[in-house]
């Protein structure tokens, strides 16, 4: 029961990132650059506080494996930057669906490039998911602004997929995540420093950025890594399929968005394709 509750909390944290980001940027309560910077900084602070609290139960640092990496920080930074700018245009559920489709397809592509043996059901599932993604984004390709936002969200999903693949063998994921967030502060600052003179800040925007960074990102990722060793990989993959649906519901509530038939059909194809990938049928 405890694991199930933590699992649900992590999924809601993932959806919360989409909802909070979209809500903050839609209302122009804060500019994207400031939101990104505050999200990373507050996430790092929350993780350091959590790590300090749990220090007595965490193994001592033993070389590179427990200190994160610059590659992890780079992919995390690319994800956060592309994710936030994409949500200046994309609706909440639409963006989350593109994001998680890109995550699954990028991880599949990396495994294929590394020489992994791919089964027919994996090819079929990926093809179905790709068709669903293409159907979903087709109308956006007619509008330059939406087209760029879709590409940004695909970039965000690919970066998160690479980040996940890089960290899946970590012996101390909480420590690695903390160091990755800390390194990402420098990378995000360098990438966005030229935009800071045009910052748009409000108390509401700052609060939303800190909420996204400290709670749904920092603590949310910590909960996710705590749960992962206790569940099967297929369960984790299937569970994440609920995130776009949770995000869609949140977008309808906080951003007055509408649920379209195109989204429902595309979601069915993408989720169905990913299910074909992760479920092993017994005969």
Automatic annotation (TrEMBL):
The chain crosses the membrane at residues 34-54, 66-87, 93-111, 123-141, 147-165, 177-196, 208-228, 235-255, 261-279. Keywords: Membrane, Transmembrane, Transmembrane helix. Residues 148-278 form the EamA domain. Signal peptide: none annotated. It is found in: Membrane. The keyword Manganese does not apply. The keyword Transmembrane applies. GO terms for cellular component: membrane. Pfam families: EamA. It is a multi-pass membrane protein. This is DMT family transporter. It comes from Pseudidiomarina andamanensis. The lineage of its organism: Bacteria, Pseudomonadati, Pseudomonadota, Gammaproteobacteria, Alteromonadales.
